[in-house]
Amino acid sequence: MTTEAPIVIVGTGLSGYSLAREIRKQDKDIPIVMVTADDGFSYSKPMLSTGFTKGKEADELAQATSEAMIEQLNLDLRTYTTVTGIDTEAHELVTGEERIRYSKLVLAWGADVIRLSIEGDGQDRVFSINDLMDYRAFREALAGKKRVAIMGAGLIGCEFANDLRNGDYEVDVIAPSDTLMPGLLPRPAAEAVKSALIDLGVGFHLETVVDRIDREGDGVTLALANGETLQADLVISAVGLRPRTDLAKASGLEVNRGIMVNRALETSAPDVYALGDCAEVDGHVMLYVLPLMACSRALAKTLVSERTEVAYGTMPVMIKTPCCPTSVCPPPSDAEGEWELEQDGNNVKALYKAADGTILGFAVTGSYAVEKQALSKEVPPIHD
Ligand code: FAD
């Protein structure tokens, strides 16, 4: 019944395009339809927080237009097309009035930014940056401005803080935690990054939150819960991401923190797969590039030839704070062990060791960051 229908991929982020590339390595002709809510430009999302450091405008971060991708990957590509439902019984994707038949459907539709509801009339000066179109809008708004306040001290907030300082902007970071990147970095490593960012001129306002954002002239005033007030021209909200699960759930797919898939990237519905930021793969929600690359290689094989399971190796994360280069491979949440520390100023080497000495995770900053590759080889892979 579904033999002539194409493979349909929703999303043209790194997951969607990596998968299409992997499929094309194996089969030049199998019909692929890609559907995306955005402009379909190909770009590397991690580059968004390096624009000033690398001296690149938003358009220079784009690697290829949608037309170039159609040509390169032999695709039928529908841009500015939002998927509104999946009819898993009929094997059809719903985009408003239109229905697109699929033989296999892949959901690569990413994660939503978490938006805080904050009092005040300055909301149109608050930017969340989770794709190239967001970044373009932010860079346009930033023209001629000087001061940026960043809500959130996670990986993305810290990377933007470093990058904007490299672009000579005044930067204040506000976050409820008492340290940076809690949950990702052990405290000594987080303190090293914080101290390097302070030396670079970033202002930190931790253990508090933004209560109000009000317009003031061309900029805004932020009222913090601790009684402080800050002036800024623009605000970046970097308070977290949440895998997009609503539409999958409404279509009857099983979801948890992400769209639930097994190691073959199969959802609970026949012929429907998921990967990337929207997916929870065998219990792991990892909003990073390495996991999605591993998934796209395995899934391409499944779609074109034989069912293949993904095997995650170790998944180190590089934090793009050039003032204090940092890499981390967090230990599994159920790991039993202790952190062992070597430290010289902002140079930190923290190893999470089991009782038998096995290294289960690490964080390295400053001059120790070069040890990332060697340490990654010592940490057991996520999947055996
Ligand atoms: P996305 O890139 O979000 O793509 C989702 C696609 O789905 C888009 O094309 C969107 O238009 C489309 N879509 C969504 N909903 C619909 C719908 N209903 N209908 C149709 N289309 C839809 N990771 C690292 O490993 N290292 C880093 O250094 C790093 N740096 C980062 C820096 C920043 C600033 C950010 C924001 C993230 C960073 N990440 C990093 C994370 C990494 O970039 C992401 O994990 C990855 O890009 C996710 O790709 P994706 O294709 O799954 O999702």
Automatic annotation (TrEMBL):
Its cofactor is FAD. Keywords: Cytoplasm, FAD, Flavoprotein, NAD, Oxidoreductase. It holds the Pfam family Rbx_binding. The lineage of its organism: Bacteria, Pseudomonadati, Pseudomonadota, Gammaproteobacteria, Pseudomonadales. Its main location: cytoplasm. One of its GO terms (cellular component) is cytoplasm. GO terms for biological process: phosphorelay signal transduction system. InterPro entries: FAD-bd_OxRdtase, FAD/NAD-bd_sf, FAD/NAD-binding_dom, Rbx-bd, Sig_transdc_resp-reg_receiver. This is FAD-dependent pyridine nucleotide-disulfide oxidoreductase. Residues 1-69 form the Response regulatory domain. GO terms for molecular function: oxidoreductase activity. The keyword NAD applies. It is found in: Cytoplasm. Belongs to the FAD-dependent oxidoreductase family.
